[in-house]
Amino acid sequence: MTWYDWYPYFKAIHIMAVLAWMAGLFYLPRLFVYHVKAKPGSELSETFKIMEGKLLRVIMCPAMTVSWLFGLAIVFSFNVVDLYNDIWLQLKLVLVSLMTVYHFYLSKWRNDFAKDGNIHTERFYRIINEVPTLLMIGIVLLVIIRPF
What are the CA-CA distances from residue 40 to residues 22, 26, 119, 130 (Å)? Predict the structure, then answer.
């Protein structure tokens, strides 16, 4: 097996990791919407803390890491794109970077909930829950259509 024969496996792992990461990016802020309604220190609030923590640590962080590692491996190892001339790829990396920043904000807000220190409203989390959808639309359009 040559090195290039590994490309479909890297791509498959990348896509699976992105799907898992996206699922978490959609679900965690939805948990926050419901967590806001729970009285701090209540059994329900403590349950949300466990759910949010496990979602972030067990699914989202590993999936984000694998997404980045295999995505960058595809770019740099298989020469399937020209990083310096493919504008669509540069824009995709900007959007994925914004998604990563969003991920870290979710992590910060989860830590606030863990300390019973949330300051945001249910409406805030409902609105912020739309961010990954907008980023995903941009990323998928750039990858599939490659307009630039």
Answer: 28, 23, 12, 26
Question: Which residue, 95, 123, 103, is CA-closest to 22?
Answer: 103
In the chain, % of residues over pLDDT 90:
87
143 Cβ contact list (under 8 Å, min separation 6): 88, 92
What are the residues whose beta carbons fall under 8 Å from the beta carbon of 120, sequence distance 6 or more? 32, 36, 109
Which positions ≥6 away from 147 have C-beta within 8 Å? 88, 141
Confidence class for position 141, pLDDT limits 50, 70, 90: very high
Claim: this prediction has a pTM higher than 0.90: yes
Buried/exposed 74-93: b ≥16 CB within 10 Å, e otherwise: bbeeeeeeeeeebebbebbb
Give per-residue pLDDT as tens, 106-116: 999 999 999 99
Q: Alpha-carbon distance 114 to 78, whole Å?
A: 42
- 13/20 Cα distance (integer angstroms): 11
Asked whether the beta carbons of 63 and 28 are under 8 A apart, the reply is: no
**3-class SS at 117?**
coil
